[in-house]
Every structure is written in C-alpha cells, then in structure tokens.
C-alpha cells in the first residue's frame, strides 16, 4: 500500500503537487523548522550549500516563518523534485503535516522514497531522524516530570492558601464586629465635638483680639520713637543756633572796642595838631592819615550795622526754636500718656487671655471626664445590648411556640374575629423587627464620624455628604419611613412651628412652609443658562401666603426633613431637572430664593419674542445614531455635537436641539431628540440588537461599531444626568441616583438593577486654539512611516516622545507626536489639543505598504491587529478624531496628501472636549 501511495504521488504533475503544498502553506510556515529539513533537501540535491546558508543565516529573514517561506520559494523553483523531496522530508520530521497535505500514512520503507537520494545517505538521514525523535521524546518526558512536580507544588500552595483564607475569614468577621462597635462609640462623641467647636470659636476670637491689641501697641511704639527722633533733631538745631548767636555778639563787641580806640587816637591827634606847629609835609601826611582813618571808620560802621541786623535775625530764630521746643515737649507728654493707656489695655488683654487659657484647660479636663463617662456608658450599653439580643431570641422562640399553639387551636376551635391592628405595636411582627434591625444598623453607620476637636472644613462636609449618598442606595429600599409618619400622623404631638425666614449677606432668603403638591402652587420657567424663576403663584395657596412672587429665582430646595438626603441646588439646573425635583416635593420643605427681576424680565422678553423657548443652553456629544422617524425629529449620527436649547420642549419629555457648525459654532438643522432616559433605553436596545447578530467578518463588525459608542461611568456617579422618568406624573416608576450636571447632587432610594451607567450623551466644552495643534496619527506603525514624509514640509516637525517635550515644542508648526493614546488625557489637562487622525486600513492597503512595513520589521497581520486595537481604544478618548477611509488612498504619497488635507481642515474647526466624569468636591 505504501508503494502504491508513493507511485500515486510520483505520477502527479508538478502543478498538482505544489497546489497541495500551497494549500497548507500557513500550517507549514507555523509548524516546520527549516534547520531540520535542509540537511535532507541538501542530500537530495534540490538545495545547495549556499541555498542552505541563505535560508538559515540571511539577516533579512528575522523569524522562522520568513525562512520557511523563502525555502518553499526555492524548492518551487526546483520543480517536481523539489516538491517530492520536501514531502519526503516532512515524512521523516513532521509526519502530521505530511498526513495533512497528502492524506496518506507516512511510511519509512526504503521502496517509498524517490531516487533523489542514495540508499546510504537515506539510511543516514533516517538514523538522524530517529535520533532527533528520541531526543524529542526524552525532552517531553523530562517536561512531563517537571510539570508533575509543579502541579504537586501548586496543589500544596492551594491547600495552604485555603487555610489562610479560612483564617482571614475569621479575622474579617472579627474586624467587622469591631467596626460596628467602633461606629457605635462615636455617636455620643458628637455632643462633645459641638462643645469643642464652640470653645474653639471663642478661643479664635480671643486670639484675634490679642493680635489686634498687639498691632495697636506696635503702631504706638513706632509713633513714640518717631517723636523722640524729632525732639532730638530740634534740640540739636537750637544748640547750634545758640552758639551762632553768641559768636556774632562777641564779634560785635570787639568791633565796638576797636572803634572806640580809633576815636581816642583821632582826638589825640587833633589835640597834638592844635598844640604844635608842623611843617607842611607833616601836615599833609597827617591829613592823609586822617582821611584813611575816616574811611576805616565808615567801613567799621557799615560792618557793625550788618552785624546788628544778623544778631536781630538770630534772636528771632532762637525765639521760634524755643516755641517749637515747647510744642514738642507738650506732644511728647501726650504720647507718654497714650503709651501708659496702651500698656494698661495690653495688661488687661493678657489677663483675659490667661482666663481663657484657664477655661480651655477646664474644658479639656471636662472633655476627658466626659470621655471616661462615655466609655463607661458604652460598656454598659454593650452589656444591655447583649441582654436585649438574648431577650429578642427568647421572644422569637416564644412567638414561634405561640404561633404553633394558635395553629393547633385554630384547627380545633371556630374562627374568631381578627385582632386589632394596633396590637402589632405591643407584639411586633418579624418584618417590622427586621426593619428595626436595619434601621439600627444604618444609625450606627451614620454615627461614624471624625472625632477631631478641630471644626470640620467645607471640603470635609462635602465629603461626608458624598459618603452619605454612596451608603444610602444600599439600604434605603428596606428603610422604614418613620419620619413622615411621626410628623404627619401623630395628632397628640406638639404642632411643628414654621421656621422664620433667614436672610443671608448674598440676599438669598430661605422660606420654610408646608409645600403639598408644590407644582400646583407655583409654576416655573428658565433653565441652566438663566436660572429657575417662579412664573406664577396660585392665589390663596400657602406659597402665596409665604410671599413667594413671580421673578424670584429658586436657588436651593431642602426636603431633608421629610426625606433625609433630599437637598438640591437649582442655580445651574435645567428646566427638566428642576421640574423633576419640585415634583417630588410634597410636604414640609425649605426653599431658598433670591430676587432677580432683571434676569426674569430678560427671559420673558426673549420668550415673548420667540428668540428662545426656554432658559436651557448646553452642548452634548451623541454616543449613538438616532434615525429620523417622524417629522420634526432630528437625525443624529454618532459623535455629532448638538446644542440643546430646551429640555421640556412643548411640555413633553423630549429635547429641542440643533446641529452645530463645526467651524463657526452656529446652529444649523433644528429638531427634537429623545431625552436622556429615552436615549439610554434606545442605546441599550441597540447594543442588545448588535450583540445578538452573528458577526460574519471584521468588515461587518467595524461598520456596526460606528452606530454606537459605549461610554460608561460608575453606578454612583453620573457626570451629566441620571436615569429620569419619561413622565413627571408617573410615580410608580423606579427611582434612581440623581446626579445633575455640574450643579448639585441628589440621592433617593434606588434598586441596583435600575442603576444603568451607559451614557447616550456626554457634556462637552469648546475651545479655539490660536496656534497650530499637534498631530497624532493612528495606528502607531503608520505614524512611524508617515513621520518623515510629513516633516519634509515646513508646516510639520517631529516632536520628542514625551509629555513635557510636547509642551515646549515649536508653536508655529504642527508637531508630529510620537505618543500613545493613553497620553491624550494628560495633553488635554495641559491645554494641548491634538489633532487625532485615524487611518482605517484594509487588506489591500496593507499589501501596498508591505515594503515600508518590512523596513520596520513588521508584517501585514501585525498592522491590521494594531489598527483594530487602537481604533477600539479611540472610543475612550474624550475628544473628537478625524477618519480617513481606506478607499481614499492607494499608496504612501496619496496617504500623505490625505493627512495634510485632513490636518488643515481640522485646524479650522472648533475643538470639543468632554468634561471629566469624576468630579472632586
């Protein structure tokens, strides 16, 4: 039979043999090792030594698949002998592939081989093949032994981990018990926190007064120091003026003495002239001397006159300095008196601070004693709780026995009247007992708070509110509604007094009243852009009696007295959200309103002139396709940007929206779209329909993926809207967690099956960058190929691979980014808005760039796989992207031009970015 099979292959023509081989080329490339087949093929003389070296050691062939493919190409050039030799080598080394190709059983009989190889060489090849198979068998046995040892170790580790898990379960139960006890300990510590808060306020006010007194004392000391300096300067100037006046008076006295002396000499000369007779020459000399003496006398008189004037001026200056000195001394005395007064005030403040410190120490001591008392009371409470649990178990057992006895009696006795319902208050049923236990557990959870003596800050209070909202949806369904019954159904209790209106510095008035069916008492208009305004008030209603009037803006609704946790800020809420909130109010509530007649009148003017239909205005991104079914509806595609102008259009549960021009942001086609709840239902139905279809090929999957964009968020946090009822009057629909758009948080009883986290719309913001935006091409392999071609133009340049380097790149050109899609969110946080270009690739396109892929060491399959992965990853990016169809380009040059055109077009458009889903409070 083997020889017949051999002759059957021998009789086949060359094309038939190679058609059989090429039909299983994929399996051959993946399962054959060329280093094991080339010795036999070289012995059969279908490959030479150079061919073997080229197959095994050519650097162009980077993997085994490329080497096997080249070997098949060489054998195909050898014709029929190449095919027969290749099949015979598979018979020796890969019999399973031989059976797959030929459908014949492999036989190593000498007669079944061709004449391409001699018998001695064939025997040698068979021996080598047997030895290689024996080696593989021994390797498999060793691997089996090692795997058995590894499996034994894994079993031992599994047993050890199960024991550890059991011990951890016990520790976890003990930890839960300790947590419950710890949460109960903090319930009574809240009173001490309030007292400590008051003491801290008093202490802070005292510290402020102390700082104020210190600043006043420092300012008075500085003024005193300045006055001292001015006094010293005045004393120095007066001393200098005294010295100058004394010097001037001494000079005047010397000049008067010299003048008297000269007059005496003159008189003496005159007497000598009368007594004696002189000659003419001596007489002329004496006359000349007399003239000189008279001239000197005149000069001395002039000098004396000037000195007298200077002396009079110096005397006037001395008098002024003396007066200034007296004034300075008077001011100095006043400053001394003020300083003494400040010293007395400071001493009084220090005494008050000492008293406050004593009071603080006493408060600390009282806090310690109170903590000791609390700990003792908690111990007593624990013991009492244990007794209560024991008594509850006994009551349950007695109730079971009593019910069994009653059932026996009812079988033998006639039926009696139904007992009064109020008897359940004495002997409660099991369901009420369970409700009581759940209520107590929730109280213990709520009592767990911070025990720090420092007053809580604003962020801490907001964090507590978020924790309450997160915990409430787990237990709110089973919580008994006792607060409402206690407030409304107890006729003997003291009637509730209406709280007075509180006025805040921001002119917001809080009004508390009985708001039964609030929307029947008032009607509202407005939206998130203008605010929510009261439009009409029913005459004679409670709202009318509480002075609510048209034009008042509703800022906050507090319904926490009737339903704990119901508190909503309507300052930035849409009209749909405001109507939903006010519809739920039916009882005692608090409304915070403020007067804003200018905004109200402007809104009425716009409504009457039909410029707007409501006060709503925001932009969204559609995550599904909405087909136009009726007239008036808007046809919406996935990733479209819409401008919502009315959330309660014509009083129905639908939105009025417009298509947005991507270049100018102007409104284009207008129509109605489903509201958030209806769109969410359509999104779920569309996803279910796509999941039920059988995906025939990848092309079908890629085309269907464009119909929907799956964006989800946490069940507890929805950044835009939440699951709302389609009709505001239907109260039988399930309730859900309500998180309104960036304005407030509201929580209600919720069922886990109703917490749908899929988002049909996402809130977006617009930006207009004034500089060229960076470019990010997807997939990464094509980005590397196109980077060099794009950078040949002056409009593009390469950017280093790094976030920080991207921020410092040239702002006058488009930077070609070499980053992953996971870095896009970081770029958006840095106000860098990249242009994302998605190049969709088909198998024909991949073949056309095969040479460029080989230079990068990649294959066509790797390119297609990476393109599919990165295209799926693009759905999570919070900005829009541009797609280039596979039919738009045929080679790299055409693709380069397409990318340039797309970048230039995207640079002209407005940038839309989704808001971050998880906000910080």
From TrEMBL:
UniProt keyword list: Coiled coil, Phosphoprotein
Keyword match Glycoprotein: no
Highest taxon of source: Eukaryota
GO cellular component assignments: aggresome; cytosol
Annotated PROSITE patterns: CARD
Listed GO biological process terms: negative regulation of apoptotic process; tumor necrosis factor-mediated signaling pathway
Entry-linked CDD domains: PDZ_CARD11_CARD14-like (cd06736)
UniProt feature coiled coil, ranges: 123-181, 283-373
InterPro entries: CARD, DEATH-like_dom_sf, P-loop_NTPase, PDZ_sf
Gene3D superfamilies in UniProt: 2.30.42.10, Death Domain, Fas, P-loop containing nucleotide triphosphate hydrolases, SH3 Domains
UniProt cross-references to SUPFAM superfamilies, sorted A to Z: DEATH domain (SSF47986), PDZ domain-like (SSF50156)
Listed name of the protein: Caspase recruitment domain family member 14
Source organism per UniProt: Pseudonaja textilis (Eastern brown snake)
Lineage: Eukaryota, Metazoa, Chordata, Craniata, Vertebrata
């Amino acid at each position: 039979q083997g020889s017949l099979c051999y002759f059957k292959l021998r009789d086949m023509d060359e094309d038939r043999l190679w058609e059989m081989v090429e039909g299983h080329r994929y399996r051959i490339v993946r399962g054959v090792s060329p280093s094991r087949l080339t010795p036999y093929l070289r012995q059969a003389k279908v490959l030479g030594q150079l061919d073997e070296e080229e197959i095994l050691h050519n650097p162009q062939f980077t993997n085994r698949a490329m080497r096997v493919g080249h070997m098949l190409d060489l054998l195909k050039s050898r014709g029929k002998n190449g095919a027969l030799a290749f099949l015979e080598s598979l018979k020796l080394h890969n019999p399973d592939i031989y059976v797959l190709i030929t459908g014949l059983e492999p036989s190593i009989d000498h007669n079944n081989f061709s004449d391409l190889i001699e018998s001695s060489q064939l025997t040698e090849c068979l021996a080598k093949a047997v030895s290689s198979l024996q080696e593989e068998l021994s390797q498999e046995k060793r691997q089996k032994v090692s795997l058995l040892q590894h499996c034994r170790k894994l079993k031992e580790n599994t047993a050890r981990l199960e024991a550890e898990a059991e011990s951890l379960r016990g520790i976890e139960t003990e930890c839960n018990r300790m947590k419950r006890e710890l949460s109960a300990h903090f319930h009574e510590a809240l009173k001490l926190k309030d007292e400590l808060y008051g003491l801290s306020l008093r202490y802070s006010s005292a510290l402020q007064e102390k700082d104020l007194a210190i600043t006043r004392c420092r300012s008075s000391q500085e003024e005193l120091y300045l006055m001292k300096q001015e006094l010293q300067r005045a004393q120095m100037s007066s001393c200098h003026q005294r010295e100058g006046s004394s010097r001037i008076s001494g000079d005047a006295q010397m000049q008067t003495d010299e003048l008297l002396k000269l007059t005496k000499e003159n008189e003496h000369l005159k007497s000598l002239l009368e007594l004696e007779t002189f000659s003419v020459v001596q007489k002329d000399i004496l006359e000349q001397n007399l003239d000189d003496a008279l001239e000197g006398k005149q000069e001395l008189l002039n000098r004396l006159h000037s000195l007298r004037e200077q002396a009079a001026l110096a005397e006037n200056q001395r008098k002024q300095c003396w007066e200034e000195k007296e004034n300075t001394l008077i001011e100095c005395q006043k400053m001394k008196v003020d300083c003494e007064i400040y010293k007395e005030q400071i001493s009084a403040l220090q005494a008050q601070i000492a008293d406050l410190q004593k009071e603080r120490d006493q408060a600390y001591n009282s806090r310690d004693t109170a903590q000791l008392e609390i700990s003792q009371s908690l111990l007593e409470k624990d013991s009492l709780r244990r007794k209560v649990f024991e008594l509850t178990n006994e009551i349950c057992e007695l109730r079971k026995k009593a019910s069994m006895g009653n059932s026996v009696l009812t079988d033998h006795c006639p039926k009696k009247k139904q007992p009064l319902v109020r008897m359940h208050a004495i002997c409660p049923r099991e369901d009420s007992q369970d409700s009581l236990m759940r209520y107590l557990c929730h109280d213990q959870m709520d009592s767990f708070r911070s025990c720090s003596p420092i007053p809580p800050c604003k962020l801490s209070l907001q964090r507590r509110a978020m924790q309450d909202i997160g915990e409430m949806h787990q237990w709110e369904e089973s919580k008994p509604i006792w607060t409402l019954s206690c407030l409304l159904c107890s006729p003997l209790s003291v009637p509730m007094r209406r709280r007075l209106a509180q006025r805040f510095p921001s002119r917001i008035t809080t009004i508390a009243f009985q708001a039964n069916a609030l929307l029947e008492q008032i009607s509202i208009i407005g939206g998130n852009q203008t605010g929510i305004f009261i439009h009409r008030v029913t005459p004679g209603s409670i709202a009318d009696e509480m002075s609510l009037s048209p034009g008042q803006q509703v800022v906050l609704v507090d319904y926490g007295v009737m339903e704990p946790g119901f508190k909503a800020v309507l300052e930035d809420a849409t009209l749909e959200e405001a109507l939903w909130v006010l519809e739920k109010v039916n009882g005692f509530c608090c409304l915070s309103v403020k007067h804003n007649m200018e905004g109200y009148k402007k809104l009425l003017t716009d409504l009457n002139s039909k410029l707007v239909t409501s006060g709503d205005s925001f932009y969204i991104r559609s995550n599904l396709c909405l087909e136009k079914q009726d007239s008036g509806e808007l046809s919406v595609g996935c990733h479209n940007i819409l401008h919502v102008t009315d959330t309660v259009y014509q009083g129905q549960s639908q939105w009025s929206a417009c298509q947005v021009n991507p270049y100018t942001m102007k409104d284009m086609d207008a129509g109605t779209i489903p509201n958030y709840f209806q769109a969410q239902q359509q999104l779920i139905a569309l996803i279910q329909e796509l999941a039920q279809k059988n995906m025939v090929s990848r092309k079908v999957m890629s085309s269907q993926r464009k119909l929907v964009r799956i964006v989800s968020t946490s069940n507890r946090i929805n950044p835009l809207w939440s699951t709302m009822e389609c009709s505001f009057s239907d109260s039988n629909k399930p309730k859900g967690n309500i998180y309104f758009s960036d304005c407030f948080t509201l929580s209600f009883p919720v069922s886990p099956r109703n917490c749908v986290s899929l988002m049909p719309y996402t809130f977006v913001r617009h930006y207009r960058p004034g500089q060229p935006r960076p470019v990010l091409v997807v997939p990464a392999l094509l980005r590397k190929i196109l980077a060099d071609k794009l950078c040949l133009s002056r409009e593009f340049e390469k950017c280093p691979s790094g976030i920080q380097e991207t921020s410092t790149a040239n702002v006058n050109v488009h930077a070609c980014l070499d980053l992953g899609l996971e870095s896009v969110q970081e770029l958006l946080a840095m106000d860098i808005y990249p242009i994302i270009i998605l190049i969709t690739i088909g198998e024909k396109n991949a073949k056309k760039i095969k040479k460029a892929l080989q230079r990068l060491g990649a294959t066509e399959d790797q390119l297609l796989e990476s393109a599919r992965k990165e295209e799926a990853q693009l759905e999570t990016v919070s900005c829009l992207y541009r797609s280039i169809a596979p039919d738009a380009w045929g080679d790299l040059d055409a693709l380069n031009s397409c990318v340039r055109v797309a970048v230039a077009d995207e640079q002209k458009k407005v940038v839309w970015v989704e808001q971050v889903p998880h906000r910080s409070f």
